[in-house]
Amino acid sequence: MTDVTKTSAASTGKPETLIEVRGLLSQFGERVIHENLDLDLVRGEVLGVVGGSGAGKTVLLNTIIGLKEPEGGTVKVLGYDRATLTDVQAADIERRTGILFQQGALFSSLSVLENVASPLVEHTKLPKSVIYELAELKIAMVGLKPEHHHLKPAELSGGMKKRAGLARALALDPELVFLDEPTAGLDPIGAAAFDDLIRQLANDLGLSVFMITHDLDTLYAICDKVAVLADKKVVAKATVQELERSDHPWIKEYFLGPRGRAATKTAA
Ligand SMILES: Nc1ncnc2c1ncn2[C@@H]1O[C@H](COP(=O)(O)OP(=O)(O)OP(=O)(O)O)[C@@H](O)[C@H]1O
To answer: What are the alphabetically sorted keywords of the record (predicted)?
Structure first.
């Protein structure tokens, strides 16, 4: 199915849509979080998702990755409709996507090397020696060193945990990566270095990225497009430069408030 999608996208010259959300309704009891929300992410795009606190960014991420069932609408990932997913399709999505949760979500009892190797152990039948070689490669790709291989998560700094989490998210060579506030909790220098790493990896590996962030610097530094969640839906998806000209009150405040202006200056 995926190959068919790829072929048709290639033959029509249209970019391939990796995430397609249509008419999403998300509720907790009577409380409506998303209503009639539409969102696309096309192959190769680094998409930042922003919105006020409680706007529903995490609920949207959880719905797209299958941790929350939507109350209405359709959610397609890599061409597969989540509502009618077979086990084979679910496994295909799992193999072709990587997720970096906010705190890294590393297994605390495993070393960095074992954490990064774990998706390969779960999803491949490769010999152990090959699995560990591949894991070492991913660890090097995110800028960690061989002396970090045997450290446990509790022995890592916040930035190193994020890097280890990213290495694990990349273990299976995914096409699509989900990042939940990748720079949260990092100091400005660590955050800028992590931004550079994400952009570099996205370019070098041809990754498509869905990233929740509060970090304006990240938006300016690495996002091709930004989707803004407000009023229970995506009110805009555009480049940061286009969003700076938006009339939407939340977008105006976000991009043209004091913090927005600071990020604009840094990016210039
Ligand atoms: N399991 C749940 N049960 C009930 N309400 C929930 C649940 N999860 C989230 N919510 C509510 O859904 C709304 C959106 O939450 P969400 O975590 O997606 O916001 P967010 O945009 O990610 O916010 P923040 O930027 O503060 O992390 C919030 O009002 C939250 O209280």
So the answer is: ATP-binding, Nucleotide-binding, Transport
Q: What is the pLDDT of residues 88-124, one digit of tens each?
A: 999 999 999 999 987 668 888 999 999 999 999 988 8
Q: Is 101 helix (H, G, I), strand (E, B) or coil?
A: coil
CB-ligand 1 contact for 53 (6 Å cutoff): yes
**Count of Cβ atoms closer than 10 Å to residue 118 Cβ:** 17
Helix axes 87-96, 112-123, angle to 10 degrees: 150
Token pair in block for residue 40: 């696309």
Residue nearest to atom 24 of ligand 1 (CA): 53
Distance CA 251, CA 126 (A): 48
| CB of 108 closer than 6 angstroms to any ligand 1 atom | no
Quote ipTM for the complex: 0.97
Q: How many CB atoms lie within 10 A of CB 190?
A: 17
